[in-house]
Amino acid sequence: MTAGRSWVNFRRRNRTVFTALVVSFLFFYSCQRSTISTNIPNQHRNTLYCPQNPIAKEVLVVLRTGATEVLEKLPVHFDTTLRCIPNYAIYSDYEEDIKGSHIHDVFDEISHDLQQLVPDFELYHRLKTKGRDGLSIDGTEHDGSGPSGLLGNPGWKLDKFKFLPMIDKALRHRPQAKWFVFIELDTYLMWGNLLEYLSKFNAEVPYYIGKQMYIGEVLFAHGGSGFALSAPAMRRVTEHWRAHMVEYNQYTIEQWAGDMVLGKALKDVLVPLLWAFPHFQGDPVSTLDHNITKIDRRPWCYPAITYHHMPEDEIRLLWKFEQEWQRTHPIDAPLRHADVFKGYIHPYLSKERAEWDNYSVNPEFSKTALKNGEAHTSFEACRSACESNPMCLQFSYRTSMCLVSSEVRLGRMATLQCSEYSTAASKCDKKEEMAVGMDEEGQGAVRSGWMVDRVAKYVSAMDQTCNPRMDWIV
Ligand SMILES: *[C@@H]1O[C@H](CO)[C@@H](O)[C@H](O)[C@H]1NC(C)=O
Ligand SMILES: *[C@H]1O[C@H](CO)[C@@H](O)[C@H](O)[C@H]1NC(C)=O
């Protein structure tokens, strides 16, 4: 009160001094602020950079999950990609709220006949009657319900039944949406690129867009790589499904993958698949070979929309990278796989990296490169083996085991070495456990190294393969 009064008196007495003070204060303050923003990089840490694409509000992103994995895998998305997505819906086999988001039960309208017919719905019943306590305590159901889960996992067996009801529910959830994009909890979605891509299409036309895959004769978009459906495609397939539910239930019982069942239903209503590799693709950023060729396309030159099999820490790191990209690039510069390689991967490819497995798994190549027989004796001998073959780009070494590769992969923190990597499943199929004790330098964990000069040449050679046609696949 006293301070207020004397301030008023002061102002009345000398307006000029007051004005001068305010001006100099503002001047000083603005200098301070510009100093702060140029000198402290962390200034940007809490600023969120979201793409300002007008179609953002016309897209519903749908996440498909299950009670066995959702608690572990969902929260990271609230901290990262979902922050920029205005409309999303989460479908599971169990209704609950997680961090303020509602998780919908995708099965709540499913026919009793189907539930009776399929013993795997036992898990659903237990969840419904006992809540989370209905998940068995022996842990066998806690390995994830998505396709990356174990085949014997009841959560995974139920997963294939989710797709068609999910399409139907998503359409009713947001009937005004023009696009519906379906992902899983280990899918990383580059939202800005997705919006840029979808805006190339006429959403009045039925579209089904994703990473092509076949099971037998049926062509479909792989679920974990993410896929998009325009509203007309959604309406067509749900109407047809509602009219032929018994047949589709029977078909689903006979098949093992729900994304394939959906692909069949879309084929039945004559909505063709647009083959969108490598915008949509099935590898995590740490194991993607950027020079892999599928349907005559290599990832390198094309904008990236999805990664799959992404563990939580990699989702956080890639999000940070993508945010930085959004901050420093004009709105219309799509983030290409090459940009991810150059900005996110290349800086970490060094001569040596401890406790790191860069998935140097190229069996044919290894065999010929290792004819010199010394490679397994030390990290340096392994490097020499790689050096002696001009095609070799990277290697990994663990006590008595040297692996080399003509492909470049970032890899991951690891102690054991991966000796068989499945490109189909994007995961290590076989880890070398037999190696014993410490190596000659007292290290027991796998180490990796890159031919740094050759990787630099690889980058320019890859850039040479790009041409302006390799932009958005429409
Ligand atoms: C990319 O892969 C092809 C084989 O598919 C190979 O011939 C080519 O040398 C590779 N490019 C680079 C830069 O390593
Ligand atoms: C391979 O592993 C090393 C660590 O030894 C890591 O620095 C590098 O990023 C990995 N590189 C590739 C291409 O896999």
UniProtKB/TrEMBL annotation:
This protein's GO CC annotations: membrane
Localization per Swiss-Prot or TrEMBL: Membrane
Domain of life of the source: Eukaryota
EC identifiers of the protein: 2.4.1.122
Residue span, Fringe-like glycosyltransferase domain: 174-270
Coiled coil: none
Major subcellular site: membrane
Membrane topology of the entry: Single-pass type II membrane protein
Keyword flag Lipid metabolism: no
Pfam families: Fringe
Family: Belongs to the glycosyltransferase 31 family. Beta3-Gal-T subfamily.
Protein name in UniProt: N-acetylgalactosaminide beta-1,3-galactosyltransferase
Protein species of origin: Cucurbitaria berberidis CBS 394.84
